[in-house]
Amino acid sequence: MAPLHEIAHLGHVELLTPHPQQSLWFFTHVLGLTENGRDGDSVYLRTWDDYEHHSLKLTAHHTSGIRRTALRACSEEALHRRVAALQQAGRGIGWIDGDPGIGPTYLFTDPDGHEFELYWESQWYQAPDELRPSLKNQPQAYPSTGFSVRRLDHVNFLAQQTLPNGDFLRETLGAEATEQIQLDDGTIAAQWLHFNNKSYDIVYTNDWTGSRGRLHHIAFATDTREDILRAADICLENDVFIETGPHKHAIQQTFFLYVYEPGGNRIELCNPLTRLVLAPDWRTITWTEAERAKGQAWGLKTIESFHTHGTPPVDQPH
Amino acid sequence: MAPLHEIAHLGHVELLTPHPQQSLWFFTHVLGLTENGRDGDSVYLRTWDDYEHHSLKLTAHHTSGIRRTALRACSEEALHRRVAALQQAGRGIGWIDGDPGIGPTYLFTDPDGHEFELYWESQWYQAPDELRPSLKNQPQAYPSTGFSVRRLDHVNFLAQQTLPNGDFLRETLGAEATEQIQLDDGTIAAQWLHFNNKSYDIVYTNDWTGSRGRLHHIAFATDTREDILRAADICLENDVFIETGPHKHAIQQTFFLYVYEPGGNRIELCNPLTRLVLAPDWRTITWTEAERAKGQAWGLKTIESFHTHGTPPVDQPH
Amino acid sequence: MAPLHEIAHLGHVELLTPHPQQSLWFFTHVLGLTENGRDGDSVYLRTWDDYEHHSLKLTAHHTSGIRRTALRACSEEALHRRVAALQQAGRGIGWIDGDPGIGPTYLFTDPDGHEFELYWESQWYQAPDELRPSLKNQPQAYPSTGFSVRRLDHVNFLAQQTLPNGDFLRETLGAEATEQIQLDDGTIAAQWLHFNNKSYDIVYTNDWTGSRGRLHHIAFATDTREDILRAADICLENDVFIETGPHKHAIQQTFFLYVYEPGGNRIELCNPLTRLVLAPDWRTITWTEAERAKGQAWGLKTIESFHTHGTPPVDQPH
Amino acid sequence: MAPLHEIAHLGHVELLTPHPQQSLWFFTHVLGLTENGRDGDSVYLRTWDDYEHHSLKLTAHHTSGIRRTALRACSEEALHRRVAALQQAGRGIGWIDGDPGIGPTYLFTDPDGHEFELYWESQWYQAPDELRPSLKNQPQAYPSTGFSVRRLDHVNFLAQQTLPNGDFLRETLGAEATEQIQLDDGTIAAQWLHFNNKSYDIVYTNDWTGSRGRLHHIAFATDTREDILRAADICLENDVFIETGPHKHAIQQTFFLYVYEPGGNRIELCNPLTRLVLAPDWRTITWTEAERAKGQAWGLKTIESFHTHGTPPVDQPH
């Protein structure tokens, strides 16, 4: 079934860091995000092609992890229909005032406990003079510092069980699974879900610790694969830990680099080339345990820490 | 207003050529398309990432130009709702059997007379052994010959008047204009329309000859800008006429190369990087006559033939 | 004849600017050079892969242009042999103390009057802690700001007559012409000379004003063509004037972008891919007037200002 | 000490394969080499930017490995001076007629027993009509099939002991070591030698089996890193075994992909970006055992087979 098209796209995420100064340095100096205001323990940061107020809310906290993931509805009506569905599913928390630039926001959790917010109203970003772009079809000047990521691309959640969460997003929000991993015992070990033409927006991966509510990684899209190779050199020079890559995922075929930001959260730099899922009747691609074991597209073995590092850290395994 | 999301994507086009052998050589050897059957004067050709039967139907004809443009609906119901709207608009022609791999097809024309077809049923492509891809989330093996374009990306029509055609696609099919050019006298000289996250699928440009039903170009998307630079070298070595580029459009920011295939039709190789229009409330960007006169993004003047070459050729100007 | 191999490479150049603050901003913020000391009206700047003290000496002056071009000899003995040849040619000026980091330096001029310096002793650059590279086979950390050019690549001089200058570098320093343009009347209109495997280090182009000692451009090499495309965007955002490009030269096949730095000097960003002249018996490639008229490799017409803009400006034409 | 500059460059190599048909398919269809004649069990193959007759002589044999490595002298005189030095070193075999296109050739072996040939006369390649390039400064048309490697880049020999072989090339041919690995016990485990501005042409690596005369790999240079990413996809689709990569070597900073051709020989696709060793007083970079253990530049662990696979295969370890 085609996506319902009531969720427009991933909006922004709130990321927690126990090392706020260093994390901020990473996101601005290395990743190339632009600060757009502060509020208490949080700094609002934006990618240069984000038309909204912010792409990332970076919040000082006693530990790492993700606090909240925001989705934008396609319209006022779509928002209210989705809120009704969330309430019916019993996972709604309620309305709150939105972050700066964001209107009324409905809070809910997925079955695993990750907090989400859903909103429609969004004030388009107006760049100040020094960030005014040369081309009027772009919200902000292309930065000349760091990786210059174009957008927040997706969130990969760790969950006690993938399937109920994927089902929840399908049933309440109209997400569709484009790809998934199914173990030999039938377990869905991971699922890639999308709302529109991007081949994935939200991913669930089974948490080896059996914990709930944790984060595997958030990802930012670069314009080119060359940007990712350049990013690797910049990480190397700035003592940013590179976990694995650059390489090409077999699943979704994304070109990737995984690094840890100073707060401990895993950050993916991803480039999908021009791949889109355009077929309205896309059939979920299911990868077997054996296929997953073959590693990445060009033969790189999946690194061990990919199955042991999540945030916040927990005593493991359960 | 957000797109209606009843049209999934551009399906395929039928291109006419007075030099079928040479055009076929161009599309297979130079562009890297794969033949997938023949029928009378037509050869069906596909890009490697097309999940459907064909991306291009190349038909021998006494002259050049585009015969038909196919759009796929998002569902059976969407198809019928759009057909009703087309009938109501008085532009429907009627149902025909579809091309190979395509189900019942509804024929209509835009106000300028370009033929379109709309369909829902589409048989997913099954690659024969020698074209079987290594990765199961891809319909066909990535070719090692020519430019290896990923998909048919968009069609740019010449029309006597842009605006009625853009309005027609908006009203009947739910297209939205993402960008446009408005002359000082108020005329909309060109309009870029999209159905989903791609920033454009169909473009109308005012025909300087006052003719109807002509083609400015069709475009194929490459994975990278490097692919386009490599394409330029391959064109150079194969005596394929390069009209202009590589460069970056200011409008839509697409990286481009324009060449003429041996039949005379202009072909664009385009790379949008990872740019998408995700905002459901995107506001049409309007470029003024003065802004258009500034040329391309990095200052290249728009080449004169861009305003004089269309297919089929006509006596000009009126 | 193979190069004599007594000149190792282009060392650094001294560039003059009437707008020293803005030029410095361009070279550090946009181009990504690193400051390495100041002296009077001059700032020393380096590319990240330069093993010597500096690649560019930027000097405040009442006008623009190039003051001096430095070449490094292959050895102490080679230096003295070349100095003897220069003295014999009657073009020597004499020994001076070198710039910071550079030992005894012999000053001379080419027939057109451009000042050169030749030296052997060179103190290898030791990066301070904050610029220490992660890889020990690299002199300085790869910068995360601006274009991150790897090296000063070549100098293109304007000269009243190309040929005597090319001959002079051949006879005194062992340069060889890899390519040249010969007009229909037999005039050598431009000549590309090299000392080693790079396909050119010094270029002479006939000055349309009949002036002596002027500069067409200096060039910095980037690692990739993508770096040049990214550079174009950074120039666009920073109001740096892009004269022409990106495109590929037919002559030498270099991928290029020409911009003007704020002092008015033309700067080329160039990428030769992995092309080298390895043949010891390379035969000078001669391009005819008609071939030159065909423009760049992929058909871009050479921009008019390429034949009218040099530094310093002069009343023209003679 | 600067290189002596009597060896111009690596000419060609003769590679042995027990599967000549499949190897030929690999080198022409996948790698994009062009056949230029046959002789007995050998096929001559060329990269598109080779000005000489051939870059690779592929010979059917009962096993894999490298038979001979050809170097071109800088001049007739340089050839004779180097032959005298080789004779004096007691490693000369004698003069033979050269391969097609190559003049009188002097045969010798390095201390480990690898056969080399040295020559001066070389007939410049004249492309037949169908391979005639569009740009006259290029020997052959750029191919539109396969990886389109520009040149044979280097040879990496396995040797019982690296050091005597490196010393031999230094003393007889004027090679210089740009980088090397030194184990904690003082052993030089590998050495990278160059003759000119390329940072390496010949590499020796200690053979873990204690054998003599074997091959670690030969390498072909691509124009871009993107070419290597594309090559990985083409290998994936053509069932060419990818051993490791793409990644960036810490040593020499080369971007690489290692594959096995069907005959079993390891082939590297390499891209050095625009890195050159220009310093005439370059100091050999020595990497310690600990530094080598850190793996590649961005953290990829060196794959085990890199230390166990050489050609021809031998019973191992000694």
Automatic annotation (TrEMBL), chains A, B, C, D:
Cross-referenced SUPFAM superfamilies: Glyoxalase/Bleomycin resistance protein/Dihydroxybiphenyl dioxygenase
Keyword line: Dioxygenase, Oxidoreductase, Repeat
UniProt entry tagged with the keyword DNA repair: no
Highest taxon above the source species: Bacteria
MF-aspect GO terms: catechol 2,3-dioxygenase activity; ferrous iron binding
UniProt xrefs under PROSITE patterns: VOC
Protein name per the record: Catechol 2,3 dioxygenase
